[in-house]
Amino acid sequence: MLKHVRVAALLSPILLLAGSAAAVTITSTTIETNASITGAGSDPKGPANSGTLLSQVIDPNGAGEGFIGDAAARAAQNVAGDGALAVEGLYANPPGRIVLLGETSWIQTAEITGGSPETLSIALSIAAPRLAFSDFAGIGLGADELVSSYVIELLLDGNPIFGSTATFRGGRGSSLLEETGTDLGGTFFDSGSLLGYDFDPLVTSVGLGTFDPGETLTVEYRMRVLVDTPQFETGGSASIGDPTDLSGPDVTQVRLVPEPSTGALVALALLGLGVARRR
């Protein structure tokens, strides 16, 4: 189950321009995280474990971490909108399938509190994802294939408005990369013991539309990474940024941003014209 953290309502309002009245008020911010490893593992290089280890809260902002043998699943998200996920594991002798999962959700509700319609957007900065697996058993595409995947979604009032997903599946014998939504590139690499794809980071703005005074909106940003290891001597990794350091550069950032109104833009243009004339 996702770790659920709710922040008190009425956080600091976002201002359109310095000195202007508050036009958009953030009424609530919720973050959820989950990091888990499901299956049974027995690794001579690590402690013997079996069953499911659910996420542990390691940060008051809602980070979770799970570990079993030589594997780890980490998910971190804070109320500011910074988050990252990583799962990785190598199993020398598992008796069956093991699934590693990390997921986060950032949900923010806002209300238009000014006296005129406001145009809003989401400023989104996605850290570079990576999908990879190791396969010493020489498997390929099929029922017992390796799977490494990521999912990134942005929703407005429950409706998807942006998404990027990629699934790398198969093994050293044969493999396939499947992508939907926004393309983050994807450069193939093969280091001998590890093969996979490095994706590009993305900085973009996603328009939400124009909202009337009194209207409310809910924006949700979701991230998910998964690795499914099917058998003896297989492993994998999937990540979107670095969940161990949300203060560093390798995190995903999401922000609700009011855009300057037409009147404000005209005022700024006239101000610039006045300055130019005085010169």
Q: Could you describe the 3D structure shown?
A:
- It is built from one helix and 21 strands.
- The protein has one domain.
- The strands form three sheets. Strands 6, 7, 8, 9, 11, 12, 16, 17, 18, 20 and 21 form an eleven-stranded antiparallel β-sheet that branches. Strands 1, 2, 3, 10, 13, 14, 15 and 19 form an eight-stranded antiparallel β-sheet that branches.
- Mean pLDDT is 77; it is low at 1-21, 42-68 and 262-271.
- The chain has one helix spanning 262-278, and strands at 3-7, 14-15, 22-38, 40-41, 49-50, 56-59, 63-68, 71-77, 82-91, 98-112, 118-126, 129-135, 146-156, 159-170, 175-181, 187-190, 195-198, 202-211, 216-229, 234-240, 252-258.
- It is elongated, with a radius of gyration of 22 Å.
- It is mainly beta.
Gyration radius from CA atoms, angstroms: 22 Å
The global form is elongated
Number of domains: 1
Order of helices and strands: EEEEEEEEEEEEEEEEEEEEEH
